Amino acid sequence: MSEIGLALARVRGAEWDYFFNDEAMDYLSLIDRSRTIYKRSDVTPIFAQPAAFAALIEDLVKPYRDERIDIVAGLDAMGFIVGTALALKLGAGFVPVRKGGKLPVAHDREVTSDYSGTVKALELRTGAFAPGKRVLLADEWIETGAQARAAIALIERAGGVVVGIVAIGFRNNEKTAALWARYRCHGVWPEQV
Q1: Number of domains, the chain
Q2: pTM to 2 decimals?
Q3: Angle 122-162-175 (CA atoms, 0-180°, nearest 5)?
Q4: How far apart are alpha carbons 49 and 53 in whole angstroms?
Q5: What is the secondary structure of 99-119 as a DSSP string?
Q6: Residues forming a β-bridge with 121
Q7: Could you identify which of 14, 52, 75, 156 might form a hypothetical disulfide with 79, taking C-beta atoms 3.0 to 4.6 angstroms apart as the criterion?
């Protein structure tokens, strides 16, 4: 194990000794930044490496570890992967916020425009959680915050209390400033490219 790995193992605790290796330490280097098809980078290589994925989830959950979180709500689709792992780590339930037209049951719907200007709808199953539940919203990438705001509207109309927003890449800019000001926001990708 490298010196960096040993230092981080000391900081994070003995339970992490198994996971620490150079691959886990530098999970952000696994992100495919080639952007050959879309303008966004691909974070999915992190998910294929168990040690890297575990380290990512540990870093994402840190600010919320002492917070009471009942539900993690994940945005379709990468937020499902990140959110489910966070929910398991936090001992919370998981609720998907789906793209429009995907839920075969009664649901609430919110329309928004995403980072590319495309009009989209998000949906939340009616009765997905009891009113008053404390919810952490999770996604892979938040650039403008439009989809996060739509998901928050759905969660709050369902009676949920949003306690934070977490994403691998979470830009802090003029479009997301209100989210950063109102909620406990966290991202782990400082480059956010």
Answers
A1: 1
A2: 0.86
A3: 65
A4: 6
A5: ETT--SS-EEEEEEE-TTS-E
A6: 111
A7: 75
The one-letter amino acid at 53? F
How far apart CA 140 and CA 178 sit, in angstroms, is: 19
- pLDDT averaged over consecutive 10-residue blocks of the chain (193 residues)? 46 48 69 78 92 94 96 97 98 98 97 89 98 98 95 98 96 95 93 53
In a domain, 4, yes or no: no
The residues, ordered by sequence, that sit 6+ positions from 39 with a Cβ below 8 Å of its Cβ are none
- For residue 66, the enclosing domain spans 56-187
pLDDT of residue 16: 46
Residue 172 sits in a domain of what CATH number? 3.40.50.2020
Q: Which residue has 């479009």 as its token pair?
A: 175
Q: What is the tally of helices (H) and strands (E) in the chain?
A: 7, 7
Name the one residue in this structure whose structure tokens are 């000001």.
181
> Is 25 within the bounds of a domain?
no
Structural Rg of the chain based on CA atoms: 17
Say if 36 falls within a structural domain.
no
Edge-to-edge strands, sheet with 134-142: 107-113, 119-125, 93-99, 71-75, 134-142, 161-170, 185-187
Residue 8 domain-assigned (yes or no): no
How many angstroms separate the Cα of 12 from the Cα of each of 7, 25, 167? 9, 12, 20
Give ∠ CA 169-163-189 in degrees, rounded to 5.
Answer: 15
